[in-house]
Amino acid sequence: MSVRQLLERHRGALLLTLALVVVSPVFGVYLAGLVGYHEPLDLAAEALGLRETTEEVNWTPLLDYTVPGLPDWLGYIVSGFIGVGVVLALGLLLLRLLKRE
Q1: Given CB 3.0 to 4.6 Å as the disulfide criterion, which of 3, 19, 36, 75 pairs with 67?
Q2: Sign, Cα dihedral of 25, 30, 31, 36
Q3: Which residues of the chain fall short of a pLDDT of 70?
Q4: Which long-range contacts (CB under 8 A, 24 or more apart) does 78-83 make?
Q5: Residue 96, phi-psi category: left (phi > 0), alpha (psi -120 to 50), beta (remainder)
Q6: Model-level pTM?
Q7: What is the pLDDT of residue 99?
């Protein structure tokens, strides 16, 4: 089965995934800020007195799902598309490898 056939076969799932990526800033940026949400691991680190090292050891250009130079909401969408693309690419790669055997 080709990639095109897979995309056509799973069109509904892909459209839902794309819609969720586009809507994600509402939850991850706007509503999180509105209710004062903080990541549980950040809260645990703060309670343990651990210091923040993100600025010293930043191994990703997409820190906190943002893209430098873009507004937070747009960075969330770009990060979502990159993440979905990576997962789909790995899935297709594994599918092809398994079909060869």
Answers
A1: 75
A2: positive
A3: 1, 101
A4: 80/20, 80/21, 80/22, 80/24, 81/21
A5: alpha
A6: 0.73
A7: 85
Three-state secondary structure along 25-85? HHHHHHHHHHHCCCCHHHHHHHHCCCCCCCCCCCCCCCHHHCCCCCCHHHHHHHHHHHHHH
Closest C-alpha among 80, 101, 91, 67 to residue 6:
91
2-21 pLDDT, tens digit per residue, is: 778 877 888 999 899 999 99
Neighbours of 62 (CB within 10 A): 14
User: What amino acid is encoded at 98 in this protein?
Assistant: L
Residue with tokens 């995934």: 17
Q: Residues 11, 15, 20, 22: is their CA dihedral positive or negative?
A: positive
What is the chain's Cα-based Rg? Answer: 18
Least Cα distance to 28 among 14, 38, 40 occurs for 38
Amino acid at 27: F
